Each structure stands twice: as structure tokens, then as C-alpha cells.
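Box 4.2: Ligand-aware structure prediction
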Amino acid sequence: MSTKTYARSDLECVEWLRGRGRSALRRMVERVSRPGVLSLAGGLPAPELFPARKYGEAIQKVLASDPRALQYGASYEPLRIKLAGLLAERGVACEPGDILLTHGAQQAIGIAAGLLLAPGATVVFEEAVYTGALEAVAPYSPRILTVGTDPETGFDVDALEARLASGERPAFVYLIPEAHNPVGATLSEEKRERLADLAERYGVALIEDDAYGLLVYDGAAGRPLKSLVPDRVLFVGSFSKVIAPALRLGYLVVPPALRQAAQLLKESIDLECSALTQRALAALLDDGFLPGHLARLRETYRARRDAMLEAVEAEFPAGTRFSRPRGGFFVWAVLPGDVDTSALLDRALEEEGVAFVPGSAFSADGRGSRRALRLSFASQPPEAIREGVRRLGRMLRVPAR
Ligand SMILES: Cc1ncc(COP(=O)(O)O)c(C=O)c1O
């Protein structure tokens, strides 16, 4: 019988990690998180908006009244009932039993991948991708196909159609129709309908990541793909951006046929999410707290988004194409000419003390988006955003020495 040996302590000892480094994005964000640097790099929510006091009160209340809060236990039904109500407002009709509570959207994507991927499967990502999704599928080593992403219109539906028409049958397509990370684009109604039609016509599953679906600043969020072709879509969401990431609470809404498998897969990983966290969140939502809280978040982030867009418009070189996000945390700018934003990052740090994330950190194959950069407006106040973009604009006007 052969056994694995773990004599070497590096990543080489685990088959699917071989040749993979730590996430380029995480390394990048660590590198630029230095004292004195004005960071437009990280994608963290604004800490001053965390409802720390309210959440503390909810925990106290639960601990004082419910002995099961510190026990092992099944997924907390009252939270799933509340969430089904919240999802109905978002346009997703589902039963509480279709909802799997997960440790964040990240785990939801990993479980969705585990449900859909057989050995040798193919998946479709956008060229500029949320890198956590790449990491979530890595243990299954799928073949990855990419399609383009436009800063204004998002996912290239024509490219997907061409792939499918040429005979590709991916196990799933991963996409973020609302307030994309990193690109900031929101899909038009027409693109959503075409994607739904393609999923139906070719029998392809979609993993719809709605991490920012409750953070839309202009009008209402678009119709989720989940509402158009419910049986084809595994819908991913999270409380990380609207309450706090440390809750590690997200969800996966699955078609009824996958309910049991999803539950079993979750149990095989970590049994269940924290009983205390689930109950505390349910108590917080019971309080009628969410609508006012969401309004506060949207108002704050909208002002930051507006400050960033005005500054990019005024300060970046003519010919820059950039997204005008309706929601989420990010603006994606594609610079004119033959530039490599990875090299520009060194200059931005040294000459201007400003950080951003180069587009290549989000590239599915490590080679794309060289002329792009991602700017986050989430965790800096408007004055700092204006100042950071002003300094970047100044650097972009002066050729490298
Ligand atoms: C698009 C997207 N999906 C998923 C996640 C993971 O979020 P969570 O904290 O819920 O795991 C993030 C986090 O930044 C994200 O931007």
C-alpha cells in the first residue's frame, strides 16, 4: 500500500497545490499594506460600518436565552426562513430547504464546484476573475476556459455562445452579474436573458455569485439569473459585505435536486456553521435592523464611489476606459497605450505612496489585463480617495525615469 509522505514542508506535497503559489492577489495586498501607504488596493468593507454594538447585543441575547447556541446542531431553520424572505425581495424565489448556509460565499463557491465537477471537467471563467473562485475550484483541477470581460458591459456573452456552439460543454460557468469584482460592471437585462437562454439551450449550470447584490447604489439591482432559469443556477450570497466578514456566513441556493448532496458535502467539510453565529444573525435581522443598516451602507459607499469616479474622470489620462459601477466596491480602469500596471505599482508605491491592484492579479491565466488596474473605494473616505487618485493621475502623466 502506498501512502503519501509529507517530508517536504512546502506546497509541493499536496497534488493539486503543486506549482501553485499563494494567491497572487493576497500576496499583492500584503505587499502594499504598509504604514503610510494610501491604499486603494484591498477589497475590505469599511470597518466603521460594522454593526458591532448591535451584533454584540444580539449575541448576549442569544446566549442568555438559548442553551443550544453553544452546542453542535443542525442548520438553524429560523435563519433560513428569514433569508428566504430576504432573497424573495432580491428576486430569488426559494424554499428555506433550498438554502445551504455556508462559511461565507467562498465556501458556497467551493461546495457548488464540488457538486458539479467530475474529474476532467471544464469550467468557464471570465478573463478578469474573482480569484477566490479560481482557488475554490483548484482542488478539482478542472480545465479552465476564459471569456472576456468589458469594463462597461461585463461578461462577453458572444464569446460564451461561440464556445458552446463549437461543442464545449462546461460543467459550469461562474459569473457575477451584479457589481462585478474586480471589474465593477453590471450585466444588462438583455445579457442576462441571453445567458439564461444559453444555459437552458445547452444544459449548462451557472454559478451566480451575488456577493454585492445588496449593495447597489443607483436604483434596484438587476434580475438574478436564478429567477430566470432557477433549475440551472446555483446562487451564491454572503453577509460579509452587509454585516461583517468575520461572521463567515454566506449561502448557496441550490435547485431542489441538489439539496441533499449539498447538505452532505457541507457536513463532510465542517458539519455546520456556528450555532451561535446563526442565531445571533437571526436575532439581529429580527430586530428590523437590516433595511436602515443597508440604507446607511449604500449612502456611504455611494458617496465614495462618486468621489472616485469624479477623480478618475478628472485625473486619469485621456483614452482611459473605466467602469462606472452601480454597486459593489470597485472601479476597473484600462489605461491607453502599451503599459504594464504591475510595473506601475512599484512606481505608485515609491513615488506617490499609493497602492492599487494590477489587473494581472485577477487574470485567470496570469497573462491578461496587463493594462488594467483595480481601485477600491470601499475602505477610504472621499477625501482620501480623491487624494489617492490625484497622485496616481500625476504619476501617469510623468513618464518613468
Ligand atoms: C465576488 C466575491 N465572491 C465571494 C467573496 C467571498 O466572500 P465571503 O467573505 O462571503 O466568503 C468575495 C469577497 O471579497 C467576493 O468579492
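In the box above, the bound molecule is pyridoxal-5'-phosphate. The mean pLDDT is 93.
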